[in-house]
Write a structure and sequence with these properties.
This protein is an alpha+beta fold. Helix content is 48%, strand content 7%.
């Protein structure tokens, strides 16, 4: 074990370590548990759908070629991988479609859950212990995200903050004390990385950043448990997280710790793309359906977004060598799809669909404008459409769909999960989906969380990787 050290309660890192180490299931706010179960289901479903996304199969092949001990489930594939490999692959699947839950724009559960579940399966943790660790990891990530202040420096908050949340959850499952957990946070700092350059250039690397963070979190906790030492002031130190990466209000990280659950406010996504496009897509879809717009009626459209949205999704739509990522980070494509197809779902970001000439030609009639009076990160956004027979029609969407101010209906959530279940390397049967829902609903009663991941049945094409893993068994 690492040498003991004083926590010095005034430190932010120490306060978080003490909170995570001391947290008990009975102390967790019921609302936080409800949100945790909701995002748990959401993350597994979107990861299931993301299992066939570009970049995932080649990663699976690389990981299985590396081999290792069968420890944790690769959720959608019917095989097991070493803990860190499973965390990496499942986080990649969860991030691939940009469809997973978020808080202040940070994809919290898409990083924390893959790391936590991989460690929990290896440790045969109970459902209660797993839920407690997941809440702790969520809380660490959310609080770091909401502490941000000042000009955005271009770091990808999901990966730099998510690594700490994943480390917290994994350390909790390994039953590390607060002093040892400081080392886990310090090791997470050594691996924290990821920038928005991958989004602005619209490359596959964007979805891999969550995977790097999940693996970093699991690895940090396991190394600290084995005596590897690391900095104690990873968040507030002279060369720590908030000094080098992004300015932040450190007091906000600690305020109400243990009584106020920021993670209870995590939101679900309605569309498989960057959150900066959602309000505009919602506006375009509303107009298309309300006015029954036909393609031949359409002349042009203008989308008005904030400067913050413009940075990630406002550039001209150009499929490039990663068409799916280009579609996910283009409000121009999202609005064009909403008007042309009257939908925006998983099918609409498939490479072959994105590359359809008719769709690309239609998208060129959409222009994007920055309106400085629109100051939000994700909303509001305004859409104006010119029709041949009716002139200009307009729609302003004030709140991003799926947030607390505009929650998704039960019908919309069910539609999302049915869409996800039909996608991926192997469609999930309705029976499998309902069993997963029941297990999550009663998760606190599971004696071993290894029972949670869906069981793979049928002829799985990815089972060809099974021999590469020696004694690996189906999950």
């Amino acid at each position: 074990m690492p040498a003991t050290r004083d926590l010095r309660p005034g430190q932010v890192t120490g306060a978080l370590a003490e909170y995570v180490a001391a947290l008990r299931y009975e102390e967790v706010l019921a609302r936080a548990l409800v949100t945790t179960k909701r995002t748990l289901l959401d993350t597994i479903m979107v990861a299931w759908a993301g299992s066939s996304a570009p970049g995932v199969e080649s990663t699976l092949e690389l990981l299985t070629n590396e081999g290792g001990i069968a420890e944790s489930s690769a959720w959608a594939y019917g095989l097991r991988l070493p803990v860190c490999s499973a965390a990496f692959l499942n986080a990649l699947c969860a991030a691939a479609l940009d469809y997973d839950s978020h808080y202040h724009g940070v994809h919290v559960d898409g990083v924390v859950l893959p790391a936590a579940l991989a460690v929990a399966e290896h440790e045969h943790s109970s459902g209660r212990d797993f839920l407690t660790a997941l809440v702790a990891g969520h809380e660490v990530t959310c609080r770091l995200a909401e502490a941000v202040k000042g000009r955005h420096r271009g770091w990808y908050y999901t990966s730099i903050f998510g690594a700490f949340g994943a480390a917290a959850a994994a350390a909790k499952l390994l039953r590390l004390d607060a002093a040892t957990m400081l080392h886990a946070f310090g090791l997470a700092l050594s691996q924290a990385s990821g920038t928005q350059q991958s989004a602005t250039e619209r490359t596959l690397a964007m979805r891999f950043q969550a995977a790097f963070a999940a693996r970093a979190g699991a690895l940090s906790a396991m190394l600290s448990a084995r005596g590897v030492t690391a900095p104690a002031q990873s968040m507030e130190g002279r060369f720590g997280l908030f000094s080098l990466y992004q300015s932040g209000d450190l007091a906000r990280v600690r305020n109400g710790l243990g009584t106020r659950y920021a993670s209870a406010e995590m939101s679900l996504k309605k569309y498989p793309c960057c959150a900066c496009s959602h309000a505009a897509i919602e506006g375009a879809l509303s107009l298309a359906r309300e006015h029954e717009i036909r393609p031949e009626q359409f002349v042009s459209a203008r989308v008005f977004i904030s400067p913050a949205m413009r940075r990630l999704v406002g550039g001209p739509f150009a499929p490039g060598d990663a068409p799916q990522v280009a579609a996910q980070f283009s409000v121009q494509y999202g609005v064009a799809c909403a008007l042309f197809r009257k939908r925006f779902g998983i099918l609409d970001i498939r490479d072959d669909v994105v590359l359809e000439p008719e769709m690309q030609a239609f998208a060129k009639r959409i222009t994007v404008a920055v309106e400085k009076s629109l100051t939000g990160k994700f909303a509001p956004a305004r859409v104006e459409i010119r029709l041949r027979d009716r002139g200009v029609i307009k729609k302003m969407i004030k709140h991003m769909p799926g947030t607390l101010r505009a929650p998704l209906s039960h019908k919309a959530i069910e539609a999302k999960y049915h869409e996800c279940a039909r996608s991926g390397v192997l469609p999930m049967s309705e029976g499998q989906r309902l069993r997963l829902v029941r297990r999550i609903h009663k998760l606190e009663h599971l004696s071993d969380v290894a029972e949670l991941p869906p069981r793979i049945t049928g002829n799985v094409p990815y089972m060809r990787y099974q021999p590469l893993l020696g004694t690996h068994n189906r999950s």
